[in-house]
Amino acid sequence: MDADEGGDMMWTQHLNRLRQIAVQRHERTGREPLGYILWSICELDMYACLLGKGSCEFFRTILQHNMLPPLEDQLPRIGQSVSGPYLPEETHVMPTLLLLNQGVLVHTAKLAQIAQQCRTEATARHAPASPGTYARWQASVSRVQNELLAFWNRSWPDFLGPEAPQAGYGLPSRACYIFEHAFILYQAAVIYARTSMFPGQRLIPTANQADLHADTERRCVAILTLASAYLEAGLMERRHVGFPVFMAGVATKQPDAKIQAMNIMTAFQREGGIGQNTYRTRQLLVAVCEEQRVVVSAGGRMEQVDWLELAKERGLSIVNCGL
After folding, report:
1. Contacts by 73-76 with C-beta closer than 8 Å and gap 24+?
2. What's the mean per-residue pLDDT of the chain?
3. Interacting residues of 131 by C-beta distance below 8 A, sequence separation 6+
4. Is the pTM of this model over 0.90?
């Protein structure tokens, strides 16, 4: 879906209608029999909000009405030949990994909501934000970011060993997919929380800035490593990597990593998808990286480039990176 004004309006109308249907079905039956679809819509809503094209109202409604489907509904049904939601080899790991994935989705949606609130306030202002406003925004961001970090640290399963993109390689295939889905979104969410929550965020000095930059680069490498492994294995259906790869390309200061991110987007673009989502995502990434290069060449800092503002100015806004 192209995110022009008409597309934005249609997207909002679709989500509002789906939200009404979901609430009505929950009130009528007490549960959603098609829980996998509900999870998928929540994820789409979250990404649209992260990309500045939504408010996470669908996801917020699901949480407020206690409508989150069971953990196992994050996966498509196996089939009638298997009794229960898991394959025998999955039963000892899957519930823990699904809980990890659910938590990352919920906390990332909360990040997206805070970002949307900050940016809406910034847009409504007719003058630059005051130091007090920046401090208030930063306090809100720090709170939700710390909640995300704390959740991840306490929920990381011991059976995975040290945190790494390859930590799931010994798991059954579906369990590995769920782990990697949670892992790569978590890395992207941390990067987003540090870079994209409100205009001018990256220009604010922070404590231990060098350590923070090094940690962000480490997360960019983890994202690109996992996405590259998918390409090498021919797993082109893993299109959820679109947003994390985009964030890695935007945030990294390493020219080679930026090129790697663009090449990954090109490879996924060749495999098609719905509409022009991947094509437009790559277009936006190329435009952001070029603008960063121009600013740095003129003596400025890469952090001066706000990719969400640039997307609006260039007509490159998107609602989903991977479909």
Report:
1. 73/32, 73/35, 73/36, 73/38, 73/39, 74/36, 74/39, 74/98, 74/101, 74/102, 74/178, 75/36, 75/174, 75/178, 76/36
2. 90
3. none
4. yes
Is residue 319 within 8 A of residue 1, CB to CB? The reply is yes
Nearest to 72 by CA among 61, 84, 60, 88: 84
pLDDT recorded at residue 3: 45
Quote the CA–CA distance of 309 and 253 in Å, as a whole number: 19
Over residues 213-260, the pLDDT tens digits come to 999 999 999 999 999 999 999 988 888 999 999 999 999 999 999 999
Is residue 80 a contact partner of residue 160, using CB atoms and an 8 Å limit? no
Q: For the residues of 6-38, what is the DSSP string, one character each?
A: HHHHHHHHHHHHHHHHHHHHHHHHSS-TTHHHH
How much is the pLDDT for 75? 82
- Token pair for residue 88? 């025998």
Bigger pLDDT: 27 or 9?
27
For tokens 């401090």, the residue is: 135
Helix (H) or strand (E) holding 86: none
Per DSSP, the three-state class of 47 is: helix
Q: Please name the amino acid found at residue 156.
A: W
Residue 45's SS3 state is helix
C-alpha span between 113 and 11 (Å, rounded): 17
Task: Give the helix/strand (H/E) hosting 231.
Answer: helix 209-233
How many other CB atoms are found less than 10 A from the CB of residue 81? Answer: 5
